[in-house]
UniProtKB/TrEMBL annotation, chain B:
Domain spans labelled B12-binding: 87-209
Cellular component terms per the entry's GO annotation: cytosol
Name this polypeptide is given: Corrinoid protein MttC1
Positions of the B12-binding N-terminal domain: 1-87
Organism: Acetobacterium woodii (strain ATCC 29683 / DSM 1030 / JCM 2381 / KCTC 1655 / WB1)
Keywords (A to Z) from UniProt: Cobalt, Metal-binding
Family annotation (SMART domains): B12-binding_2
InterPro entries in UniProt: Cbl-bd_cap, Cobalamin-bd, Cobalamin-bd_sf, Met_Synthase/Corrinoid, Meth_synthase_dom
Gene of this entry: mttC1
GO molecular function: cobalamin binding; metal ion binding; methionine synthase activity
GO biological processes: homocysteine metabolic process; tetrahydrofolate metabolic process
Pfam families reported in the protein's UniProt record: B12-binding (PF02310), B12-binding_2 (PF02607)
């Protein structure tokens, strides 16, 4: 189970405010808190205008690295921003993200091929977000051909099957879980990731919907989660589900996380 | 920290993959097999106490016992044939009509860890079978009967009384969710323990170890 802490993201209003005000204490605190909560990666996404994106990324990454040893997920829709941001990192982290849009995947894979960096890949292409499981899996097939071409082992990949809001879906999450299952069947060592909170857009009591999704997605094979690790209910649910799935010998991970206060209020 | 202390910490924290090597290191450093075993038994005592006070959970107790058994495997060839370190044989089973074995297995594990040679009769054990086991096995010093259901409490009574009638000198210890000290006294058992964690201490007390 891999936890990618999502809180240092300019798309979140309080973080955006801190970035605008150059409030390094606020950012540092988010880094430390997420590290303490058990994040395996700390996602850093500036979400600012293009002309200041790189300098903002550097400023954020420096603060996070001063505060904690947790590796960084360099997060930008712009693949070149990710590539440049990698240079600010003092250890390999997570490249977030590539997709089959344009030449993104070639540009990124060239850079990360012979490194220890892992990589998030979204299953969309020049045709947008595929509507059916089959179409998404076709994109996945093309993506894995690229991995092979650049000699990137599947275990370094975190496939994001694209989690969309539940409230407009006709079949709940059946389509996305079908995609997850098939991905894991084809490549057991690959990671499947996703932004858990996408599921609950436009619904009340989002936290509950997010947890229900996490449990079912995990049961389908999702093992990497982009979320707020300070949400103890969600973290508890993930550890409990992992144990239920028989992936936690003697429930030691669950008990350990409980002892560390990861999911105890 | 001495090698024996290392072993103790590894047992208490259930590091089953590392215990064997640590036991070997202790032997290589000149520690006696018996002393290492005693140290591990003491560690399991600590684990049992922590479980009884609610400080640790069942899996942590299981994993500690697993770690200890890895350590014991290293000592076995050295201590083979030397029965002086055994507290004696204990016969254990869940009484007639009761199919629960999780609690029983935990107790077996704890008693084994504290130095008893355990004979497990399994679940749904008729009273006579306890008596037969006492007669068939060598050096039996204790019989342990568990009953997890209120409906099998009469069977617990029958088991204790049958054993006592056949072997008046034999010590009998009882336990299980619905069982209390009062009930144990009432049916003529020699001892009672509220949980697996405290069962080992009580068993040793009963045989005067």
């Amino acid at each position: 189970m891999i936890i990618i802490g999502e809180k240092i993201n300019g798309a979140i209003p309080s973080t955006a405010k801190a970035i605008a005000a150059k409030d390094s204490e606020f950012i540092k605190n988010l880094a430390i808190k997420q590290a303490e909560a058990g994040a395996d990666y700390i996602d850093v996404c500036a979400s600012v205008d293009d002309d200041i994106e790189l300098e903002t990324m550097k400023w954020l990454i420096d603060i996070v690295q001063d505060a904690t040893d947790v590796p960084i997920a360099v997060d930008s829709p712009n693949v070149y921003t990710c590539i440049e941001s990698m240079k600010y990192c003092n250890k390999p982290g997570l490249f977030n993200s590539v997709s089959l849009e344009g030449d993104k995947v070639d540009v990124a894979f060239k850079v990360i091929a012979d490194t220890k960096w892992e990589c998030v890949a979204l299953l969309n292409s020049d045709k947008g977000i595929p509507k059916t499981a089959k179409d998404r899996l076709d994109v996945f097939t093309d993506l894995m051909a690229k991995c092979k071409e650049y000699n990137i082992d599947p275990s370094r990949m975190h496939i994001d099957p694209l989690i969309e809001m539940l409230c407009t879906s006709e079949d709940g999450i059946a389509m996305v879980t079908e995609v997850i299952r098939e991905i894991k069947k084809q490549y057991p060592s690959i990671h499947v990731t996703g932004a858990v909170s996408n599921i609950s857009f436009n619904l009340p009591a989002r936290r509950i919907a997010n947890q229900a999704f996490a449990v079912l997605a995990m049961s389908a094979g999702m093992d990497s989660f982009i979320l707020d690790p300070l949400n103890k209910d969600m973290m508890g649910m993930l550890f409990a589900t992992e144990a239920m799935m028989g992936e936690d010998e003697y429930c030691m991970e669950y008990i350990g996380a409980f002892r560390e206060g990861v999911f105890v209020k | 920290m001495s090698k024996i202390e290392d072993v103790k910490v590894l047992v208490e924290t259930g590091k089953s993959k590392k215990v064997a090597a640590a036991v070997q290191e202790a032997l290589d450093a000149g520690d006696k097999a018996q002393d290492i075993l005693d140290a591990m038994i003491a560690s399991m005592g600590v684990v049992g106490d922590k479980f009884s006070t609610g400080e640790i959970f069942v899996p942590e107790m299981l994993i500690a016992a697993k770690a200890m058994s890895k350590g014991v495997d290293v000592l076995k060839p050295i201590m083979a044939g030397d029965t002086s370190n055994s507290l004696g044989t204990c016969i254990m089973g869940t009484v007639a009509g009761d199919l629960h074995d999780i609690g029983k297995n935990l107790v077996i594990m704890m008693l084994e860890s504290s130095g008893f040679d355990m004979v497990d009769l399994g679940v749904d054990v008729p009273a006579e079978k306890f008596v037969e086991a006492v007669k068939e096995n060598d050096n039996v010093v204790l019989v342990a009967c568990s009953g997890l259901l209120t409906t099998t409490m009469p069977a617990l009574k029958e088991a204790v009384q049958t054993i006592k009638a056949a072997c008046p000198e034999m010590k009998v210890i009882v336990g299980g969710a619905p069982v209390t000290q009062e009930y144990a006294d009432e049916i003529g058992a020699d001892g009672y323990a509220p949980d697996a964690g405290s069962s080992a201490a009580k068993a040793k007390e009963l045989i005067g170890a």
